[in-house]
Description:
By secondary structure, the chain is α+β, with helices and mostly antiparallel strands. Helices cover 48% and strands 16% of the residues.
Amino acid sequence: MRMYAIIIMQAIIITEMERQMEKIRKRSKKRDAILACICGTDCHPSAEWVYTQLKPQIPDLSLGTVYRNISMFREEGTIVSVGVVNGLERFDGETRPHVHFICEDCGAVLDISAIEVPTELAALAEQATGGMVSDCRLTFRGRCKHCMAEEIA
Length: 153
């Protein structure tokens, strides 16, 4: 029994050391630029959009590098995925819970700051499932005003 406790403690220590090492990861010009690009826009970019924006300033940037860094940022919680829109996963540098509107015609992803995510929804979900809610995202889908105006014109 004591041997199992020692093995479990070693596994916990190793896991914690791995987490700390990940936090100490090297900073790089490319990594910083990718994060700044995502956080510096409200268009909720795809990896391809980020790549296209940064490639002129960073000629040796690859799409694979963008994808790997986005994946790492998501795991860290530095950015969040808004979901897949028109076949491309879209990202948001604003990680606090907030409401989105996705246009089903043009693929625009808009923040709706006038509406807050109702906190009571999490309590209701926890009551209904007996589980614990760690995140809640509210997304509306439809047609944006620009697409509706084009149809009228």
